[in-house]
Prior knowledge:
The complex is a heterodimer of chains A (about 375) and B (about 400). Chain A is α/β, with parallel strands linked by helices and about 375 residues long. Helix content of chain A is about 50%, strand content about 20%. The longest helix of chain A is centred in the last third of the chain and has 33 residues, at about 330-360. Chain A is globular, with a radius of gyration of 22 Å. With about 400 residues, chain B is mostly beta strands. Chain B has helices at about 1-30, 370-390, and strands spanning about 35-45, 45-50, 55-60, 65-75, 80-85, 90-95, 100-110, 115-120, 130, 145-150, 155, 160-170, 175-180, 190-195, 210-220, 220-225, 230-235, 240-245, 250-255, 260-265, 275-285, 290-300, 305-310, 310-315, 320-330, 335-345, 350-360. Chain B starts with a helix and ends with a helix. The chains are: A alpha/beta (about 375), B mainly beta (about 400). Chains A and B meet through α2 of A and α2 of B.
Amino acid sequence: MLNVLMLGVGQCGNRILDAINKEAFGGGGAAKLAKYYLRPKFPSRVETLAINTAINDLKELRFTTAKDRMHVANLHGVGANRNVGKQAFMDNRDMIMGEIEKRGDFDIAFVITSTSGGTGSSFSPLLINELKRQYRDITVITVAVLPFREEGSLYLQNAAFSMRELMEVDAEGIILADNQYMKRFSGDIASAYDKINSMIAKRLLFLIESLDSEMLSVTDLGDFKTVMNGGLRIGTMGFYQADSNNLSIKDAIENSLKPVNLLYPANVADDAARAMIIIQGSRELLDVDEITKEVERLSASAGHVFKGIVVKKGRPKVLSVFTVASAPELESIYAQAARGMQDEKEKRCRARKQLDDAFAHIEDLEEIY
Amino acid sequence: MRRLIYLQCLAYLLFSILLIQAAHAKEASDNNDEVTFKDFNLNIGDRIDLGDYQMELIEIQSVRDGLVVMRVAKIGGSLDEQRALLLDSPNNFDGGAENGGITITVADIFDEQSAKVRIEYQQSLGTPRKHASERPAPALDKPELSVQKSFERNQMSVGDEVKVTITVKNVGTGQALGIKAEDIPPLPEFSYVAGYPPKIKETLDFGQSDSTVYVMNAVKEGSIRVPAIMVSYTDAKKKAKSNSSEPFNILIRPKSKADLAIKLAGPAPIALDGEGMLNISISNLGTASATRIEADGTVTPADGLQATGLGKSFFEILPGGEVNYSARLSGLKPGNYTIRLKVGYDGGDGSVIQEGTLNVVVLEREYKYQYLLLIIPIAIIIAWMYRRYKEYKY
């Protein structure tokens, strides 16, 4: 059994973690009551911990137990200031790591964070370093969420610097989710957040369940690490569940890799470095030959593809995890962030100059009373 | 002159004295002719002397008829007469008191031996004097019967037998002959069983008594005036006499019979599968004994309440008496039950059946803490949910 640590850092990470806990209760509206009489049903031993400097963000969680919410006292958040966030982490590092240590040893840790916020973007790189230092054999996967582009230059700036730091730490890889990309799923921002969070939560739980299941065709944590180490060590996940009208496993695999079902805009055929396809469904629906053919076809473009088949009653479900060798969207973000930072800098200079000019009017004058 | 005046006064005085003396002499002469009277109580043989007259009480012939025999004689033999005098009727001798003779009136007759006599006479005859007879009173031959009729008791009930006793006693001084007792008419409220009409000895010497008894049966209720019984007889002189008893009242009540009252004292509601005691009291409120008493009971509905010991027999319950016994009740099924106790007995007027009923409730099974079956799980659930709520409350 895998020992899994899931850390939700910052408001975005907290909410995704809460969505994971909700899914562990069965998801949907029933989970609201189920939490009063059921224990969360995780496929492995999963420990969750929500970390935040803003207590109000912790209070709004509904499916995460109080003991799994950790408030790092720093007034009310870090105000999207990563420097303040880093200082807060360093000031409370022992406490944070002590809280994690209480939860035992882990094989894999998912650090779920937004790249744009204050706490998550500043805490996560430092936290990953601490995890790697404290747990030598642990696999750390960062689940990083990119911001809406219109959220502001500060968030883009944070995302740019945070992503750079996340790339530099000794984690096994980053799974990207792009809010901007997934915004299309819902009309308004609030429901888009909920849907994105739920989507990420389901895919992570599916991944954990699959890695910890007896498989017809085996993939394991090692394979997953290998996949995440491929390319830029940046990957994403696709998911598809066959509908009752089309139970073809081939179509399900193909659909799981289509951009519409990915968390981050990528072209598998052009960008994928390594991939893992995990298929779950009733035995009679799982045609191994067909799966093998489809995987082989994918391997031709994506390099190495691991496949795992889990026999479980139900319509075929396919989770695809792949790392990319190029990330044009990231470049776009960095360019946008740089522009924003430049604009910010210029505005600040202009403002400073205007202020200096204003002060110049009274430069030789004294206060008279 | 003075002497003349004195003489004149003395003459007036002497004249006055003479006038007074003359008036006095005239008055005395008038008084001697006046009729007066005097009463005497005489026994037989007593005599009154007045002047030349001698008056003797010879006999009280009849007290009832007011006849007294007296003898009046005059010294010298010019008058010697024995006459029966009627009570309160003046009898003149020698022309009566108005004409210088005497008048005798019997004022009262005390008994067979004495009477009160009034003598009227002119004062000139002198003062009458009584001479008591020195002869012993002759032994009288005067029977007198007292008669008494009595009932055994003055109150009885229809159907009761009663004895009537007639007692006749000769309380007189002579022999009573030809005694006849007439106890009539027969009373319609009674049927005469034996001894009627009553028979008494025909002859009773003085001091003797006789009695007879007859038996009747009361047949009709009511208050009855029992008429007097009359006894008639004659004395030795064949003089007819009679006497009666005093009438009196008796009460004949309705026929006495037993009246049993049944009282059932039940337990408080019986718990299911529980037991209780039923106390039965049968008391005789009537005036006759109840005999051959048979008590038996039924329970409706028949199943659900078991009663043991309801049936019982008693030989007799005296008037005012009471018998008590108990029956055991077992509640087998919840519900309302009626226990009907029938008591048959002979109440003196044939067989009678009395009934008594009692309602008994057998309670539903009490689930004392049944509510806990609901409350405890709810409390556990609430506690569990609260605990979970606290787990998630931050």
